[in-house]
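Example record for the data management plan.
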Amino acid sequence: MAEADRPHLVVLTGAGISAESGIQTFRAADGLWADHPVEAVATPEAWHRDPERVLRFYDARRDQVRRARPNPAHKALARLEKRGFRVSIVTQNIDDLHERAGSRRVLHLHGEILQARSTVDPRLRYPLPRGGIALGDVCDKGGQLRPDVVWFGEAVPRYPEACELVAEADLLLVVGTSLAVMPAAALLDQAPLEAPCVLVDPEARDLAPPGVTRLARPAGEGVPALARHWQREGRLWVPEALAEG
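Corresponding structural encoding:
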């Protein structure tokens, strides 16, 4: 069967899947974000007011990402792809854990922390395999480099591409997201009416919109469980034994 003819699993992942690898979310009560209000480090205004503070903050986040390791949820999604399933991942996360697990089709909705971006030409991006960004680090056009992430208050340039992917889904799997951050939360509205949607999250019973199957488990438990069913049957479906509503 040609790949284009295979059922398409589209996965929307949020901070919860990375949190299980030890990466703090900005809603966490402790960790990197605790002493750094969003307004002070993750907005265009913060960058213009105190770029050195912003760069220090993202250097610390970058170090945390480099120390983290893919967890069973990341690995289960990569394994599905290796077993011949058609899998596309749209992630709100700025880490590279999906790629390190082995997933090849990953769209980073909010950018990638292991890249720097020009402030004068957003098309100019530079990998950061080690180290960070300092004031005075410039692009090929002489502009200061900044983290290649989408800050609060900025446009999400890859959102239309994400909408197109979700619109192709035969099954939409949502993992580790509160469905509260826009515009990512509106992606569910782009899924075909006939495509089942499953939310895997410890708070799924409270978070899932009507019509969404709830699997109230951590990502590292729920995603591998679903993946095992799909691999065993060779198809995408919602096992009644796992569905909780």
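Summary line stored alongside the record: The first helix runs from residue 15 to 19.
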